[in-house]
Amino acid sequence: MAAAGESPEVLFWVGCMGSFDDRAKKITKAFAKLLNRANVKFAVLGTEESCSGDPAKRSGNEFLFQMQAFANIQVLNAYEVKRIVTACPHCFNTLKNEYPELGGNYEVIHHTQFINTLFKEGRLTVEGGSFKGKRITFHDPCYLGRANDVYEAPREVLQKLDAELVEMKRCKQRGLCCGAGGAQMFKEAEKGDKEVNVERTEDVIESKADIVAAGCPFCNTMMTDGVKHFNKEDEISVKDIAELIAEAADL
Amino acid sequence: MISSIIFSVLILTTAVIFIVRIRQINANINLGRDIDLSDRPSERWKTMARVALGQSKMVARPFAGIMHIFIYVGFILINLEVLEILIDGVFGTHRIFYQFLGSDTYHTFIGFFELLAFLVLFACVAFLVRRNVGRLKRFSGTEMTAWPKSDANIILIVESLLMIAVLTMNAADSVLFALPDATVMTAGLSHYTGIEFDGWFWFSGYLTGMLPNDPTTLFYIERACWWFHIVGIFGFLIYIPYSKHFHIFLAFPNTYYSKLEPAGELTNLESVKKEVELMMDPNQDPFAAPAADAIPAEPQRFGAKDVTDLSWKNLMDAYSCTECGRCTSECPANQTGKLLSPRKIMMDTRDRAEELGAHKRKNGAEADDGKSLLGDYITKEELWACTTCNACTDACPVNINPLNIIVDLRRFLVMEESAAPNELNTMFTNIENNGAPWQFAMADRANWRDE
Ligand code: HEM
Ligand code: SF4
Ligand code: SF4
After folding, report:
1. What topology is assigned to B2-30+61-256 in CATH?
2. What integer pLDDT is reported at residue B92 of this predicted model?
């Protein structure tokens, strides 16, 4: 275990997107910088981490999922991991809800919740000035919101920025999916008359937001593509909450 | 006397037909796999109280929610008045509660029910207009074929007629009672004397002006409405268990057995767990013959192909569905023109359970009709469109879970038939080989730290 200190306070579960996807790696780095700024001693599994099994499970491959879970739980238990933070709601959901029954019992925290706690404990502070006058809208990830009822932590974090937080017409419980979940990310969509991320981007445009705050690397990709579909990359940017906070903290 | 006998025979016949049908549905639901949902009773009672009794998820759409509460409260409370009608019918009495309650209280009692009846009538008409004139999108869709549409209209029209009958009956009765006793006696209607209503009733009072003053005609109007109303209720009771209207009973147990885990949590298949444990256990000799007790008595399929592979709760869900389409209208796949409609998943499941149940009743419990839910009802294209976003489960006012069925059918496709789309098979191979859904080397996983 590549630990940045002797007895780490928390394990940062990076996830496959966060490890390999060029866009998502930026989120990983931003979050790591925030952890360092707040003096959080954290560890990562590095090459010992493996896919949580979420896409396999949601597409029906329970075998593969349980093999992945089994292997990951062996590693996590060997290091006596107690707390896990992750920037991916899919890993968050799987580790938190589906691993315990297979022998993996941890306190699992989403990074927006973790950042929120750091603020509350006064371990992290930001000026937020650079976002003055900007309109930010939060796109609820299905696996954070409806799947696990976390709606407020990401919004509370965004309040730290000196920006105007606006809601899309569909938000929280009724927030529309970005289209990536259930392993859709890895396949072409079935035949239809529109892509889901395009439908969702229309909500963004309607909200007149300058920035879409995401809390999931998959949503991030989908929404970025959606914005490109409308040729609006110059007007609307898609950023993870960790990136926004890191930016505000001049990291 | 003769009418008491006819009435009692009608009650008994209705009860028998109703019970036979309920037993059929019960048997059909039990075609499903057994699962144990007897845990956490207090949490379950609370969920039922909130979602079914308290209608908490209905009001997410305020208009439909409030109209429905009128019908729902009306139905439950109006049963008290139906009790009076039943007693009168069996014993040949007339407005038996009048004797117990006295004039003033009885007047308020009936007035209150008239208020409810009026609200129910109002709501039914509003629902009818909304369905047939308003053209709400969630009332159309491929699964909303002729029958489901007529079903909805039949229910609403019959309920409206029942309410109109009650109001007309009360109006005729109160005119009759207001006539001088002597007039009523000469018409041979001694039954209708001796009760003094304190003026018109709250709502039917407005109808009295339209009625004649002739006691015999009033008598026939009153009797006709009385019989129409109660026979209508009997007919309705027989009709309900063949209709989406069955939710008025099943909504309660169905919400009691709601999924209490976080919505995102999927079950870990027990059968798979055993095999994976064996495979991963270094102390196991992979070539050793499995111990006798390790072989399950009845090998369970991985995932579901037919309703018999689903759980009884999935099937209870199907019978509880009101076909309201809230799930489908929130579904991202459906909104973007894909074939998937979670409401269709539920309706297909119910139709298949009906079909298989009927086949087994005819040909014996072991009989198989060669059809299945997957394939004959639900296609792969529908299943692969789902993003597992839980919008449908969140939207459902009866806490139905279409996603659970979708995932179980996918499991069958993937684990029993290896019938996943090619791109997903590639993803599986990548996870197996690289521990990530793409073709990246495991060794590069931590590279982000140095970039
Ligand atoms: C026990 C007495 C109940 C009665 C008499 C009743 C009556 C009705 C009627 C007449 C409709 C038809 C509306 C239409 O098709 O346009 C309806 C629809 C519906 N009912 Fe009930 N219901 C009852 C209980 C419940 C309960 C406990 C629930 C659970 C929350 C429920 C949920 C629904 C839903 C979701 C619809 C579809 C409404 C829509 O189209 O928006 N009902 N009900
Ligand atoms: S979980 Fe699947 S079926 Fe349900 S709303 Fe989402 S995409 Fe549609
Ligand atoms: S599953 Fe629920 S939301 Fe969907 S149509 Fe049936 S009752 Fe309505």
Report:
1. Fumarate Reductase Cytochrome B subunit (1.20.950)
2. 86
Pocket test for ligand 3, best of B326, B344, B392 (most atoms within 8 A of CB): B326
Distance between alpha carbon A225 and the CA centroid of its chain, in Å? 17
| A4 occurs within a structural domain | no
B-chain residues near A98 (CB < 8 A): 265-266, 268
In this predicted structure, the answer to whether residue A3 has a pLDDT above a threshold of 70 is no
Name the range with the highest mean pLDDT among B22-26, B133-137, B291-295. B22-26
Question: Residue A4 has what pLDDT?
Answer: 47
Nearest to A13 by CA among A83, A101, A60, A118: A83
pTM: 0.93
Q: Which atom of ligand 1 is nearest to the CA of B138?
A: 40
The b/e string for A197-226 (b: 16+ C-beta within 10 A; e otherwise) is bbbbbbbbeebebbbbbbbbbbbbbbbbbb
Domain B302-422 has CATH 1.10.10: no
Between the CA of B329 and the centroid of ligand 3 the distance, in Å, is 10
**ipTM value > 0.90:** yes
Q: Which of residues 340-359 of B touch A (CB under 8 A)?
A: 340
Domain that holds residue A95: 10-117
- Which residue in the set A59, A62, A193 is minimally distant from B337, CB to CB? A193
pLDDT, tens only, A147-174 = 999 999 999 999 999 899 999 999 999 9
Determine whether the interchain pair A174/B391 forms a contact, defined as Cβ–Cβ distance below 8 Å: yes
The CATH number of residue A57's host domain is 3.40.50
- pLDDT beyond 60 at B44: yes
**Range B110-137 average pLDDT:** 92
Judging by beta carbons within 10 Å of its beta carbon (0-12, 13-18, 19+), is residue B315 exposed, middle or buried? buried
Structure-token match 């949580």, residue found: A52
**Shortest CA gap A242–chain B (Å):** 16
Question: Cα(B424)–Cα(B422) distance, rounded to whole angstroms?
Answer: 5
Please tell me the distance in Å from A223's CA to the nearest CA on chain B.
14
Residue B227 has pLDDT above 80, yes or no: yes
Other Cβ atoms closer than 10 A to B417 = 13
Tokens of A48: 């010992």
Residue A112: pLDDT over 60: yes
Measured between CB atoms, which of A58, A63, A177 is closest to B276? A63
- What are the sequence ranges of the domains in chain B? 2-30+61-256, 302-422
> Average pLDDT, stretch A222-230?
97
Is B414 close to A193, i.e. CB distance below 8 A?
no
- Supply the angle between the helices B342-363 and B312-320 in degrees, to the nearest 10: 110
Amino acid at A159: Q
* Of the candidate ranges A6-10, B59-63, B189-193, B270-274, the one whose mean pLDDT is the lowest: B189-193
Identify the residue whose C-alpha is closest to ligand 1 atom 42. B248
